[in-house]
Q: What sequence folds into this?
């Protein structure tokens, strides 16, 4: 996986909205964070467009993203927010532009489909972490972490070592591999498409929000039936927010569903990582090599995001 060039003071960050509609007050707050850190910000032409649950038409959203990917002055492309819509424009994205001129791509939630595509079609590392909406009202310590991944080829151990205190799988020995994944629903949607990279030899990362256990069961089943589990070396689980049975529904609990699907893989699987839709959203460089250590309850990155 190619490590894009690090951000330097004065570099320009392009903000795009390939998914859901954007709120102006959150954009203003997020821009303030980036500008105080020494970066210049360019907003996409159609950033504030709206078409129902989408941030404008498919054509406009794809054009905004491609303009940022093709512009040599843009060194980081940042999602304004998540929602839904990125997979609708997957066939229109200029994946080759990212490979010709690698640059940082950052975001989470619906950004997952683009993370997967940039790894599958461009071979470039990306950053799973707060969107611009989240940066504007994020905790100072987490913003410092996010900025460190963007500007430092190998951040210090306090940033690279992430607690994963919950043991789910049966494997105990430490395993290493490239961290791939993001939001479970989007990984599930990407299965059996050209936009899911090979997971062989990887540490698969999942997080989710507002999905009952039976739907998580269905997503994990589909990923298994698609053959995507083959060769996965470990599983790292982030936040699962409000993933509880519906009232008066007799469902398996989330922990039971996860153990059914992941516990039988025979690979180390750890949960409790504070990344995703929870109160904390620690950044993770996707495509970078890491070690999942069950004995220490840690996910430790050996590589950074940038060069």
A:
């Amino acid at each position: 996986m190619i490590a894009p060039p690090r951000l330097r003071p004065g570099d320009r960050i392009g903000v795009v909205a390939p998914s859901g509609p954007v709120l102006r007050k959150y954009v203003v707050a997020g821009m303030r964070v980036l500008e105080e850190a020494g970066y210049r910000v360019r907003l996409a032409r159609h950033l504030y467009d709206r078409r129902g649950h989408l941030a404008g038409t498919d054509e406009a959203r794809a054009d905004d993203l491609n303009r940022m990917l093709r512009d040599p002055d843009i060194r980081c492309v940042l999602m304004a927010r998540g929602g839904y819509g990125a997979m609708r424009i997957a066939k229109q994205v200029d994946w080759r532009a990212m490979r010709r001129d690698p640059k940082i791509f950052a975001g989470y939630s619906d950004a997952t489909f683009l993370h997967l595509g940039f790894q599958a079609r461009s071979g470039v590392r990306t950053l799973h972490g707060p969107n611009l909406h989240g940066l504007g009202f994020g905790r100072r310590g987490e913003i410092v972490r996010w900025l460190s991944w963007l500007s430092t080829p190998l951040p210090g151990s306090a940033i690279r070592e992430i607690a994963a205190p919950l043991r789910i799988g049966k494997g105990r020995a430490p395993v290493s591999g490239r961290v791939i994944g993001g939001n479970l629903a989007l990984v599930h949607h990407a299965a059996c498409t050209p936009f899911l990279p090979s997971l062989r030899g990887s540490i698969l990362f999942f997080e989710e929000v507002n999905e009952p256990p039976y739907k998580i069961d269905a997503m994990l089943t589909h990923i298994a039936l698609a053959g995507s589990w083959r060769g996965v070396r470990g599983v790292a689980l982030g936040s699962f927010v409000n993933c509880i049975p519906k009232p008066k529904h007799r469902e398996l609990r989330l922990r039971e569903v996860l153990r059914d699907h992941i516990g039988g893989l025979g690979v180390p699987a750890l949960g409790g990582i504070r990344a995703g839709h929870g109160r904390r959203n620690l950044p993770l460089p996707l495509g970078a090599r890491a070690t999942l250590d069950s004995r220490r309850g840690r996910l430790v990155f050996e590589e950074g995001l940038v060069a």
About this structure: The CA atoms of residues 77 and 102 lie 11 Å apart. The chain has two domains: 12-151, 157-301.
